[in-house]
Amino acid sequence: MSINSHEQKKVSPSSSGEEDTFTIKVLICDDEPLARERLKTMLDKTGGIETVEDTAANGTQALELIEKNQPDIVLLDIQMPGMDGLTCAQKIADMETPPAVIFCTAYNQHALDAFKAQAVGYLLKPIRQSELAKSLKQAQRLTQSQITALNARNHSNEEHVVARTRQGVELIPASDITLFQADQKYVTVSYPKGEVLIDEPLKSLQERLGDSFVRIHRNALVARKAIESMSQSDDGFYVLNIKGLNEPVTVSRRHVSSVRRVIQGTSR
Fold it and tell me: Which residue numbers delimit the Response regulatory domain (predicted)?
């Protein structure tokens, strides 16, 4: 989804000679009046934003207001009476010149479906001013090449995990992940950008991701392609060296044989 640049209103350059800027038109859709008012207040504090005067309480109203006002960005709740946000986003994606969609919701379990609906952002309530401003900026800067890549990813069969990071809720391709390590109720995900926490259990991850990940401990899964070598420490414990990680990871005795077979290129 891209910003409808032909609908943007140009603001006159300042006397200091700064470059022209654009006002971005934003439509709010949420079934809670207080939530709509809070978003409007936050938008009013964000420079370069024009909020559509009418707001929507469900997906049907949002589609009508998009047709009428041609906004550049829609802030869209997910769980609403009548047409929900995901259904609305799918209909928006089929438009000839669709506005960008940023989901604003209290539920993180819909993130995968949201990105499949080509949303460019996914914010969890209570939404912070800084998070909203960042998502709006990202939506404005989305290039056509990024849109193509996003669409290709969303229509592929590759698995992803959903994580909440400082940038909001993100989808991390399973192919980028080297290690899942459980600690109480959360799982730490190691990937090239660092580490993030998710709340999907290891058992579910292993079932969903299949043979691309190997169980090396009751609390750890490792990507097959990330395994470099296994060695035995002086105290008799086995450890695994993993690509991209500075510290080796312990292999439980019950999994040593299966990990060794993986390293040797064989399987059970």
Answer: 25-140
What CATH number has the domain bearing residue 128?
3.40.50.2300
Q: In sequence order, what are the residues at sequence separation of 6 or more whose Cβ sits closer than 8 angstroms to the Cβ of residue 123? A: 102, 103, 104, 105, 131, 132, 135, 168, 169
Q: Which of 175, 169, 28, 197 is nearest to 110 (CA)?
A: 169
**Rounded CA separation 192/98 (Å):** 33
- pTM: predicted TM-score of the whole model, two decimal places: 0.54
219 Cβ partners below 8 Å, 6+ apart? 181, 182, 183, 202
Q: What is the pLDDT of residues 33-42, one digit of tens each?
A: 999 999 999 9
For residue 54, count other CB atoms closer than 10 A to its CB.
12
Residue 44 has pLDDT above 60, yes or no: yes
Max distance between CA atoms of the chain, in angstroms, equals 73
Other Cβ atoms within 10 Å of 101 Cβ, number = 26
| Residue 254, SS3 per DSSP | helix
Amino acid at 267: S
Domain carrying residue 183: 172-263
Q: Which of 158, 193, 210 marks a domain boundary? A: 158
pLDDT in tens, 186-199: 899 999 988 888 87
Is the omega angle on the peptide bond into residue 201 within 30 degrees of 0, that is, cis?
Answer: no
pLDDT bin (cut points 50, 70, 90) of residue 164 is low
| 147 pLDDT above the threshold of 60 | no
Tell me, yes or no, whether 104 and 177 share the same domain.
no
Domain boundary among 158, 180, 197: 158
Q: Rounded to whole angstroms, how far apart are CA atoms 21 and 257?
A: 62
